[in-house]
Amino acid sequence: MSTSDSAFEEVFRALEEGDRPRARDLLTRLLRRDQSNPQYWLWMSAVVETRKERIYCLKEVLKRDPHNQAARRGLTLLGVLPPDPALIVPPRLQRRQWQVKIEKPVVQRPPISYKRLALYGLAAAAVIAIFLLVLFAPQLLRPREVSQRPTISFRPVIAETTQPTAGLPTLTPTLLLPTPPWEGLQATYTPTAAYVRTPHAVIEAYAIGLRAFERGDWVRAAEYFQQAVDTDPTAPDLYYWLGEAQRRNGQTGAALNAYNQAIRTSPSFAPAFLGRARAALSGSNPKTEDIRKDLQTAINLDPNLAEAYLELAQLDLSEERYEAALQNLELAGQLLPDSPLVYYYRARLHLAQGNAEAALTDAERANQLDLTLLPVYLTLGEAHQANGQYVESIEPLEIYERFAQPPEPRVYALLGKAYLQSGEEEKALQVFDEALRLDRLNFEVVMERGKLYFERGDAEAALSDFNRALTIRPRSFEAALWRSRALLALDAYGDAYIQLNKIEGDAVSPERKAQLYYWRAISLEPLNVRAAINEWQRLLALGEEVVPAEWLEQARRQLSVLVTPTDTPLPTRTLTPTQTRQPSRTLTPTASLPATRTFTARPASPTSPPAATP
What separation in angstroms does the CA of 526 have from each of 129, 402, 521, 575, 594? Predict the structure, then answer.
């Protein structure tokens, strides 16, 4: 009997015992090994908790077995598929074939006999009882039938003795967010567990510890591995397993002691160096040089230890050593060709290098290989957004946000961008607020919320957020530029001009110079027309390769209005410190960037400056 068959039988035993969490855990592990088996998905649909999860599992069954009747019945019952005519009971079989013939008694008029009346009464009662019994017996002895709708059985039949305890699924949705079929399970993928499995037939605690480890019961696993170590203190793999259970339980110090003991017991035992490197990485003050040395030692001792290549690639990625990370991922991929971690780390590498298309391809492949690998959902959302697919990024980001613990402000920022791009401004504002509740100094979230306020016409709130952003990053060119735009929306032209002058030294690229000249020209027109003309001319000098076409057109139009043919001096206004924003100014709902203003006898152009995003 294969390992999969044995695990599948354990699923049935767990269901017979009413242990649905255990059955769900076993099915999840089976799906990690083989997602192409429709029976695994079918049974998973019977043990998950929510309607959406059942629908998801049943759809996965039909992807692999389009003619699976049990899955079709389940989806029909859940309202996803219309009733299948092939499953409807024909009307001729729905008719109850019964008939009771009641013969009319002969009417006689003999003298009244009370005994005869009693007999007649009993006979009539018997006839009525028989009539009722024949009428209702079929309904009592068989499942209830509904006309024009098939009788649906949601539970698959594998063996006659198997009786799943899951009831019929409810038609009332209980979740608002999309969820994968592993709600509440820990998203881990550990090929090392299968790599280091030395048989210890005489140590029963070792076998019990492995089963607890597979269930994710780290405390119980550590207890039994400790018993195994006490039984045989010369086996390095027992110390290794003890360290693995302790590390996953957050006991980094104890895990390091166990790994060190394994190395002392057998200096050539490669997995112990891998475990020690992982424990050091999870510590409060990791020393990357020592960690890299341990990982390299593990590879030198065992070149087939693919997990060491993966950890080394992840370390290279964190240190921006992209070429080295790619080489280690290629070596890991040769040893583990279908490992989702290889594709996951490679997707992270492509994102760091700005290769959005390759990142999305690898992230999708990693997700296909292991639906339970939670970090992939975040990477998938980031890759979609890097490709400009904000709507497509919502589902994986919502899944990650639902299951990730603790909540991450960066995920809320990504979700807010996605909602904003899909037109759901209120939801975007809610997730931005939640992100800042968790981390009030998150620069990215503050900036995104400020832009949202600005687009909605609330320049006061936008200015408050941009002020906070500059407090977090005082040298941010982006935050300063957006602050000047908010000041312009509030008619505080002097303050806007002063803010723009502060960042002139940071406008090193042609693109930044174009932004600086454009918004400085807008701020100067009400204050100093001659200076505004100079800014428009600087903008034109940058050329069409740098400046947006709308800005070039705006500059030419403004210069044709502001510059007179006789080149006579134009009236100017001197900037004074008092020309600043008034604190008590009230923003009306229609407040926006001012229309183009001119201060000559010529008529002004009615066109407003384009709201270009820096």
Answer: 101, 51, 10, 10, 10
Q: Coil, strand, or helix at residue 108?
A: coil
- What's the whole-number average pLDDT of the chain? 77
Count of C-beta atoms within a 10 Å radius of residue 437? 11
Residue 454: exposed, middle, or buried by beta-carbon count in 10 A (0-12, 13-18, 19+)?
buried
> Exposed (0-12), middle (13-18) or buried (19+): which is 392, by Cβ within 10 Å?
middle
Average pLDDT over residues 178-189: 42
Span between the terminal Cα atoms of the chain, in Å: 64
Token reading at 361? 């391809």
Q: Count Cβ atoms below 10 Å from residue 13 Cβ, excluding itself.
A: 13
Q: d(Cα 369, Cα 290) in Å, to the nearest integer?
A: 32
Q: Which of 291, 190, 260 lies closest to 299, judged by CA?
A: 291
Residues 366 and 376 sit within 8 Å (Cβ to Cβ): yes
Q: Which residues contact 405 (CB under 8 A, 6 or more apart)?
A: none
How many residues would you count in the chain? 614
Q: pLDDT tens digits, residue range 129-182? A: 665 555 555 444 444 433 333 333 333 323 333 333 333 333 323 333 344 444
* Residue 84 in tokens: 């299948």
Query: Two tokens at 200?
Result: 């210890």
- Interhelix angle 38-47/51-64, nearest 10 degrees: 170
How far lies 520's CA from each of 470, 491, 501, 525, 614, in Å?
19, 13, 8, 9, 13
**pLDDT score of 115:** 57
What is the structure's pLDDT at 246? 93
Provide the H-helix boundaries in 336-424.
340-353, 356-369, 374-386, 390-403, 409-421
Residue 315's pLDDT band, with cuts at 50, 70 and 90, is very high
pLDDT score, position 215: 86
Closest to 421 in 3D by CA, of 442, 393, 441: 393
pLDDT at residue 570 tops 80: no
CA distances from residue 39 to 11, 16, 34, 68, 168 in whole angstroms, order as listed: 12, 18, 11, 10, 18
Q: Find all residues with CB under 8 Å of 512, minimum gap 6, and list them.
A: 477, 506
Please give the full DSSP string across 432-499, using - where no structure is assigned: HHHHHHH-TT-HHHHHHHHHHHHHTT-HHHHHHHHHHHHHH-TT-HHHHHHHHHHHHHTT-HHHHHHH
Q: Across 118-122, 188-192, 429-433, which has the greatest mean pLDDT?
A: 429-433
Token representation of residue 535: 């800014």
363 residue type, one letter: A
